[in-house]
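Appendix B. Raw example, untouched.
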Amino acid sequence: MNKERIILEKASEFFPHTETYLDASGINREFALNLREVMGDGGYIVTAIETDVEDGYEFESYSETNPFNALASVRSKIRRGLATKYLLLEEDRVALRFDEFQGRIGSGGVIIDGQFITFAELCEMLQVYEGFSITLSITNPSL
């Protein structure tokens, strides 16, 4: 048995399976935590997926050496991610609170504030900024 497999088995004995966090709206959100080993180069990835919500919040972190470093990093990402609400309901439609947002690309749309927004809805939200400049940054969720 290799060293990484032993570390992963030992870590999973103490590794939490779920955790709950309070978001900016005062709503408790539960996340299922998954620890997996990266084959080849090695390392560990921790994924936190919001439970009981389709296309909800999802966070991921990577550590080259220690699964608990990845866990600490994903916990930090969850807290930062839940601390700001980017969307508001305005005249029966969703609008941006600020001139920016963070989210995740999904199939057919994006997930912002744990809520699925179709690409058509996103385009409608962005049309109020006609004539403005835009910057788009696509990043790896593990890093």
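End of appendix B.
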